[in-house]
Amino acid sequence: MKQPLRHFLLLLCLALAGPVAAADIEIHDAWIREAPPGAPMLAGYLCVLNRGQTPATLTGVTSPRFAHVMMHRTETRDGVARMRHLAEVTLDPGRQECFAPGGMHLMMPAPEQPLRAGDQVELTLHFADGDSRRVVAAVRTP
Amino acid sequence: MMKINVTTRVARRIIPVLAALWLLASCGAPQPPQLEGATLLQPDRRLAEFSLVDHHGEAFTQDALKGHWSLAFFGYTHCPDVCPNALGMLKRVQSLLEARGEPLPRVLFVSVDPERDTPQTLAAYVGYFHPSFVGITGQDAQLQRLTRQLGILYGRAPGGEGDGYLVDHSAAIILFNPEGHYQALFNVPHDPQRIARDFLAIRDWYEASR
Ligand SMILES: [Cu+2]
Q1: pTM of structure
Q2: Do residue B25 and residue B51 come from a single domain?
Q3: Contact assessment for residue A61 and residue A68, using Cβ atoms and an 8 Å cutoff
Q4: Which ipTM value was assigned to this complex?
Q5: From A67, which residue of chain B is nearest by alpha-carbon distance?
Protein backbone atom coordinates (compact mmCIF):
# COMPACT_ATOMS: atom_id res chain seq x y z
CA MET A 1 0.00 0.00 0.00
CA LYS A 2 1.25 3.47 -0.83
CA GLN A 3 2.37 5.65 2.05
CA PRO A 4 -0.18 8.49 1.65
CA LEU A 5 -3.09 6.03 1.45
CA ARG A 6 -1.89 4.26 4.60
CA HIS A 7 -1.74 7.57 6.41
CA PHE A 8 -5.20 8.43 5.22
CA LEU A 9 -6.64 5.08 6.39
CA LEU A 10 -4.90 5.39 9.74
CA LEU A 11 -6.38 8.84 10.26
CA LEU A 12 -9.79 7.61 9.18
CA CYS A 13 -9.63 4.75 11.69
CA LEU A 14 -8.59 7.13 14.46
CA ALA A 15 -11.42 9.49 13.56
CA LEU A 16 -14.01 6.71 13.61
CA ALA A 17 -12.87 4.68 16.58
CA GLY A 18 -11.01 7.22 18.66
CA PRO A 19 -12.27 8.72 21.90
CA VAL A 20 -15.31 10.99 21.75
CA ALA A 21 -14.20 14.35 20.52
CA ALA A 22 -15.75 17.36 22.23
CA ALA A 23 -17.53 18.05 18.94
CA ASP A 24 -19.65 14.95 19.60
CA ILE A 25 -20.96 16.36 22.87
CA GLU A 26 -23.89 18.76 22.88
CA ILE A 27 -24.82 20.75 25.94
CA HIS A 28 -28.09 22.64 26.12
CA ASP A 29 -30.62 24.22 28.48
CA ALA A 30 -27.99 25.19 31.04
CA TRP A 31 -29.43 27.33 33.82
CA ILE A 32 -28.93 28.16 37.47
CA ARG A 33 -31.84 28.52 39.83
CA GLU A 34 -32.08 31.98 41.33
CA ALA A 35 -31.80 31.41 45.08
CA PRO A 36 -33.35 33.25 48.02
CA PRO A 37 -31.13 36.04 49.42
CA GLY A 38 -28.50 34.58 51.72
CA ALA A 39 -29.09 30.99 50.55
CA PRO A 40 -25.71 29.33 51.02
CA MET A 41 -25.95 26.87 48.11
CA LEU A 42 -27.09 27.12 44.51
CA ALA A 43 -28.28 24.47 42.06
CA GLY A 44 -27.59 24.36 38.34
CA TYR A 45 -29.13 22.21 35.61
CA LEU A 46 -28.32 21.25 32.01
CA CYS A 47 -28.61 18.47 29.45
CA VAL A 48 -25.64 16.66 27.89
CA LEU A 49 -26.08 14.66 24.69
CA ASN A 50 -23.43 12.23 23.42
CA ARG A 51 -23.62 12.17 19.61
CA GLY A 52 -20.46 10.02 19.38
CA GLN A 53 -20.06 6.29 18.78
CA THR A 54 -18.39 5.56 22.12
CA PRO A 55 -19.33 6.27 25.72
CA ALA A 56 -18.32 9.63 27.19
CA THR A 57 -17.72 10.23 30.88
CA LEU A 58 -18.37 13.56 32.54
CA THR A 59 -15.92 13.76 35.44
CA GLY A 60 -16.46 17.25 36.77
CA VAL A 61 -17.55 20.83 36.29
CA THR A 62 -15.68 24.06 37.09
CA SER A 63 -16.63 27.72 36.90
CA PRO A 64 -14.84 31.03 37.43
CA ARG A 65 -17.83 32.17 39.55
CA PHE A 66 -17.78 29.30 42.05
CA ALA A 67 -15.11 27.96 44.42
CA HIS A 68 -16.23 24.50 43.35
CA VAL A 69 -19.06 22.72 41.59
CA MET A 70 -20.27 19.34 42.83
CA MET A 71 -22.30 16.86 40.84
CA HIS A 72 -25.20 15.61 42.96
CA ARG A 73 -28.22 13.40 42.62
CA THR A 74 -31.38 13.81 44.70
CA GLU A 75 -32.90 10.44 45.50
CA THR A 76 -36.25 10.14 47.21
CA ARG A 77 -36.67 6.71 48.73
CA ASP A 78 -39.40 5.71 51.21
CA GLY A 79 -40.44 9.35 51.33
CA VAL A 80 -36.99 10.56 52.41
CA ALA A 81 -35.06 12.92 50.10
CA ARG A 82 -31.28 12.66 50.10
CA MET A 83 -28.54 14.26 48.03
CA ARG A 84 -25.60 12.13 47.04
CA HIS A 85 -22.31 13.06 45.41
CA LEU A 86 -21.65 11.75 41.90
CA ALA A 87 -18.00 11.13 40.99
CA GLU A 88 -18.85 10.87 37.29
CA VAL A 89 -21.73 10.58 34.87
CA THR A 90 -21.41 8.17 31.95
CA LEU A 91 -23.17 8.96 28.68
CA ASP A 92 -23.66 6.02 26.37
CA PRO A 93 -23.50 6.67 22.63
CA GLY A 94 -26.61 8.48 21.46
CA ARG A 95 -27.74 9.05 25.03
CA GLN A 96 -28.77 12.28 26.68
CA GLU A 97 -28.56 12.84 30.41
CA CYS A 98 -30.26 15.82 31.98
CA PHE A 99 -29.57 17.47 35.28
CA ALA A 100 -33.06 18.61 36.29
CA PRO A 101 -34.94 19.71 39.45
CA GLY A 102 -35.51 16.80 41.83
CA GLY A 103 -32.81 14.66 40.17
CA MET A 104 -29.21 15.26 39.17
CA HIS A 105 -28.01 18.79 39.80
CA LEU A 106 -24.85 20.84 39.97
CA MET A 107 -24.40 22.13 43.50
CA MET A 108 -22.21 25.10 44.29
CA PRO A 109 -21.65 27.51 47.16
CA ALA A 110 -23.25 30.90 46.53
CA PRO A 111 -20.62 33.47 45.52
CA GLU A 112 -20.10 36.55 47.69
CA GLN A 113 -21.56 38.70 44.93
CA PRO A 114 -25.11 37.32 44.74
CA LEU A 115 -26.41 36.01 41.42
CA ARG A 116 -29.74 37.37 40.24
CA ALA A 117 -32.11 36.31 37.47
CA GLY A 118 -30.66 37.46 34.14
CA ASP A 119 -27.01 36.95 35.13
CA GLN A 120 -24.88 34.69 32.94
CA VAL A 121 -22.37 32.24 34.35
CA GLU A 122 -19.72 30.27 32.52
CA LEU A 123 -19.43 26.55 33.29
CA THR A 124 -16.79 24.14 31.97
CA LEU A 125 -17.61 20.46 31.72
CA HIS A 126 -14.64 18.09 31.93
CA PHE A 127 -14.60 14.64 30.36
CA ALA A 128 -12.51 11.56 31.16
CA ASP A 129 -10.66 11.69 27.82
CA GLY A 130 -9.28 15.11 28.67
CA ASP A 131 -11.76 17.07 26.58
CA SER A 132 -13.70 19.92 28.05
CA ARG A 133 -16.64 22.02 26.91
CA ARG A 134 -17.67 25.51 27.96
CA VAL A 135 -21.27 26.57 28.26
CA VAL A 136 -23.06 29.68 29.51
CA ALA A 137 -25.80 29.15 32.08
CA ALA A 138 -28.46 31.80 32.63
CA VAL A 139 -29.61 32.51 36.16
CA ARG A 140 -33.40 32.36 36.36
CA THR A 141 -36.42 31.25 38.35
CA PRO A 142 -37.87 27.83 37.37
CA MET B 1 -92.80 -14.20 32.94
CA MET B 2 -92.97 -15.93 36.31
CA LYS B 3 -89.24 -15.53 36.82
CA ILE B 4 -89.32 -11.77 36.16
CA ASN B 5 -92.17 -11.38 38.65
CA VAL B 6 -90.16 -13.08 41.41
CA THR B 7 -87.11 -10.94 40.67
CA THR B 8 -89.19 -7.76 40.77
CA ARG B 9 -90.81 -8.79 44.06
CA VAL B 10 -87.43 -9.53 45.65
CA ALA B 11 -86.04 -6.25 44.37
CA ARG B 12 -89.05 -4.38 45.79
CA ARG B 13 -88.23 -5.74 49.22
CA ILE B 14 -84.44 -5.36 49.05
CA ILE B 15 -84.17 -1.84 47.64
CA PRO B 16 -85.92 -0.08 50.55
CA VAL B 17 -83.75 -2.04 53.01
CA LEU B 18 -80.57 -1.01 51.19
CA ALA B 19 -81.76 2.58 51.01
CA ALA B 20 -82.47 2.61 54.75
CA LEU B 21 -79.03 1.16 55.51
CA TRP B 22 -77.37 3.78 53.27
CA LEU B 23 -79.30 6.58 55.03
CA LEU B 24 -78.31 5.23 58.46
CA ALA B 25 -74.66 5.06 57.45
CA SER B 26 -74.56 8.51 55.95
CA CYS B 27 -76.56 10.60 58.41
CA GLY B 28 -74.18 10.10 61.32
CA ALA B 29 -71.07 11.79 59.95
CA PRO B 30 -70.27 13.09 56.49
CA GLN B 31 -68.52 10.59 54.25
CA PRO B 32 -64.73 10.97 54.30
CA PRO B 33 -63.61 12.95 51.25
CA GLN B 34 -62.46 11.29 48.04
CA LEU B 35 -58.77 12.18 47.90
CA GLU B 36 -56.36 12.13 44.95
CA GLY B 37 -53.10 11.78 46.82
CA ALA B 38 -53.43 12.90 50.42
CA THR B 39 -53.58 10.52 53.37
CA LEU B 40 -56.25 11.58 55.84
CA LEU B 41 -55.80 10.88 59.56
CA GLN B 42 -59.03 9.74 61.13
CA PRO B 43 -59.26 10.78 63.85
CA ASP B 44 -56.85 13.68 63.61
CA ARG B 45 -53.83 13.55 65.94
CA ARG B 46 -53.52 15.95 68.85
CA LEU B 47 -49.92 17.10 69.33
CA ALA B 48 -47.93 16.95 72.56
CA GLU B 49 -46.13 20.14 73.57
CA PHE B 50 -43.17 21.45 71.61
CA SER B 51 -41.40 24.78 71.76
CA LEU B 52 -39.77 26.24 68.65
CA VAL B 53 -39.04 29.74 67.27
CA ASP B 54 -40.42 31.43 64.14
CA HIS B 55 -38.36 33.64 61.79
CA HIS B 56 -39.34 36.76 63.76
CA GLY B 57 -37.81 35.19 66.86
CA GLU B 58 -41.25 34.63 68.42
CA ALA B 59 -42.13 31.41 70.23
CA PHE B 60 -43.79 28.80 68.01
CA THR B 61 -45.66 26.16 70.00
CA GLN B 62 -48.62 23.87 69.35
CA ASP B 63 -50.86 26.89 70.20
CA ALA B 64 -49.43 28.80 67.24
CA LEU B 65 -51.03 26.21 64.95
CA LYS B 66 -54.53 27.05 66.20
CA GLY B 67 -57.00 29.20 64.29
CA HIS B 68 -55.94 28.42 60.72
CA TRP B 69 -55.03 25.60 58.38
CA SER B 70 -51.28 25.11 57.93
CA LEU B 71 -49.18 23.23 55.39
CA ALA B 72 -45.70 22.34 56.67
CA PHE B 73 -42.59 21.26 54.77
CA PHE B 74 -39.39 20.16 56.52
CA GLY B 75 -36.06 21.12 54.94
CA TYR B 76 -33.01 23.34 55.30
CA THR B 77 -31.45 26.33 53.56
CA HIS B 78 -28.30 24.45 52.41
CA CYS B 79 -30.65 22.41 50.18
CA PRO B 80 -30.78 24.11 46.74
CA ASP B 81 -32.85 21.51 44.86
CA VAL B 82 -35.66 19.76 46.75
CA CYS B 83 -36.44 22.59 49.20
CA PRO B 84 -36.91 25.46 46.71
CA ASN B 85 -38.91 22.99 44.58
CA ALA B 86 -41.27 22.25 47.46
CA LEU B 87 -41.66 25.89 48.52
CA GLY B 88 -42.24 26.97 44.91
CA MET B 89 -44.85 24.20 44.63
CA LEU B 90 -46.59 25.39 47.83
CA LYS B 91 -46.59 28.93 46.47
CA ARG B 92 -48.46 27.58 43.42
CA VAL B 93 -50.96 25.80 45.70
CA GLN B 94 -51.65 29.16 47.34
CA SER B 95 -52.03 30.92 43.95
CA LEU B 96 -54.53 28.26 42.83
CA LEU B 97 -56.57 28.70 46.01
CA GLU B 98 -56.32 32.48 45.76
CA ALA B 99 -57.64 32.37 42.18
CA ARG B 100 -60.70 30.49 43.49
CA GLY B 101 -61.22 33.10 46.20
CA GLU B 102 -60.50 30.56 48.95
CA PRO B 103 -58.91 31.50 52.28
CA LEU B 104 -55.26 30.49 52.20
CA PRO B 105 -53.64 27.92 54.47
CA ARG B 106 -50.45 29.13 56.10
CA VAL B 107 -47.20 27.69 54.76
CA LEU B 108 -44.56 26.67 57.31
CA PHE B 109 -40.95 25.84 56.43
CA VAL B 110 -39.51 23.93 59.39
CA SER B 111 -35.71 23.74 59.36
CA VAL B 112 -34.27 20.33 60.16
CA ASP B 113 -30.83 21.96 60.34
CA PRO B 114 -31.19 24.13 63.46
CA GLU B 115 -27.41 24.37 63.87
CA ARG B 116 -27.00 26.42 60.69
CA ASP B 117 -30.49 27.90 60.17
CA THR B 118 -31.11 30.86 62.48
CA PRO B 119 -34.38 32.84 62.51
CA GLN B 120 -32.57 35.56 60.50
CA THR B 121 -31.41 33.08 57.82
CA LEU B 122 -34.95 31.73 57.55
CA ALA B 123 -36.55 35.19 57.37
CA ALA B 124 -34.68 35.99 54.14
CA TYR B 125 -35.15 32.48 52.77
CA VAL B 126 -38.92 32.06 53.21
CA GLY B 127 -39.68 35.72 52.44
CA TYR B 128 -38.24 35.20 48.95
CA PHE B 129 -41.07 32.76 48.15
CA HIS B 130 -43.95 34.63 49.78
CA PRO B 131 -44.17 37.27 52.53
CA SER B 132 -46.73 35.12 54.35
CA PHE B 133 -44.51 32.01 54.59
CA VAL B 134 -43.25 31.26 58.11
CA GLY B 135 -39.79 29.85 58.83
CA ILE B 136 -39.38 27.77 61.97
CA THR B 137 -36.29 26.60 63.79
CA GLY B 138 -35.28 25.78 67.37
CA GLN B 139 -33.29 23.38 69.47
CA ASP B 140 -32.77 19.93 68.07
CA ALA B 141 -34.52 18.24 71.01
CA GLN B 142 -37.62 20.42 70.57
CA LEU B 143 -37.60 19.89 66.84
CA GLN B 144 -37.59 16.13 67.40
CA ARG B 145 -40.53 16.44 69.79
CA LEU B 146 -42.50 17.77 66.83
CA THR B 147 -41.14 15.63 63.99
CA ARG B 148 -41.49 12.33 65.89
CA GLN B 149 -45.20 12.97 66.32
CA LEU B 150 -45.55 13.49 62.59
CA GLY B 151 -43.40 10.61 61.37
CA ILE B 152 -40.99 13.11 59.78
CA LEU B 153 -37.44 11.74 59.64
CA TYR B 154 -34.20 13.66 59.29
CA GLY B 155 -30.53 12.99 59.84
CA ARG B 156 -27.10 14.21 58.83
CA ALA B 157 -25.21 12.64 55.96
CA PRO B 158 -21.62 13.24 54.82
CA GLY B 159 -21.14 15.60 51.88
CA GLY B 160 -21.62 19.24 51.19
CA GLU B 161 -18.76 21.67 50.80
CA GLY B 162 -15.59 21.49 52.88
CA ASP B 163 -16.30 20.05 56.30
CA GLY B 164 -19.99 20.67 55.80
CA TYR B 165 -22.74 18.08 55.85
CA LEU B 166 -25.99 17.26 54.13
CA VAL B 167 -29.32 16.53 55.81
CA ASP B 168 -31.55 13.71 54.61
CA HIS B 169 -35.17 14.52 55.36
CA SER B 170 -38.73 13.38 54.74
CA ALA B 171 -40.20 15.15 51.73
CA ALA B 172 -43.84 14.86 52.86
CA ILE B 173 -46.05 17.89 53.45
CA ILE B 174 -48.10 17.85 56.66
CA LEU B 175 -51.53 19.46 57.00
CA PHE B 176 -52.63 20.80 60.40
CA ASN B 177 -56.27 21.67 61.01
CA PRO B 178 -57.39 24.85 62.83
CA GLU B 179 -57.38 23.00 66.16
CA GLY B 180 -53.65 22.55 65.61
CA HIS B 181 -54.02 18.79 65.14
CA TYR B 182 -52.20 16.66 62.55
CA GLN B 183 -54.92 16.10 59.93
CA ALA B 184 -53.35 14.81 56.72
CA LEU B 185 -50.15 14.00 54.87
CA PHE B 186 -49.20 14.74 51.24
CA ASN B 187 -46.50 12.34 50.11
CA VAL B 188 -44.24 12.75 47.06
CA PRO B 189 -44.62 13.32 44.17
CA HIS B 190 -46.27 16.69 44.80
CA ASP B 191 -48.62 18.24 42.28
CA PRO B 192 -50.02 21.69 43.17
CA GLN B 193 -53.40 21.09 41.47
CA ARG B 194 -53.95 17.81 43.32
CA ILE B 195 -52.82 19.24 46.65
CA ALA B 196 -55.13 22.26 46.25
CA ARG B 197 -58.12 20.00 45.42
CA ASP B 198 -57.37 17.58 48.27
CA PHE B 199 -56.94 20.44 50.70
CA LEU B 200 -60.36 21.86 49.79
CA ALA B 201 -61.99 18.41 50.04
CA ILE B 202 -60.47 17.84 53.49
CA ARG B 203 -61.38 21.34 54.70
CA ASP B 204 -65.00 21.04 53.50
CA TRP B 205 -65.33 17.60 55.09
CA TYR B 206 -63.81 18.91 58.34
CA GLU B 207 -66.24 21.83 58.46
CA ALA B 208 -69.22 19.61 57.66
CA SER B 209 -68.18 17.23 60.46
CA ARG B 210 -68.29 19.91 63.16
CU1 LIG C 1 -27.11 18.84 46.11
Answers
A1: 0.84
A2: no
A3: no
A4: 0.81
A5: B161
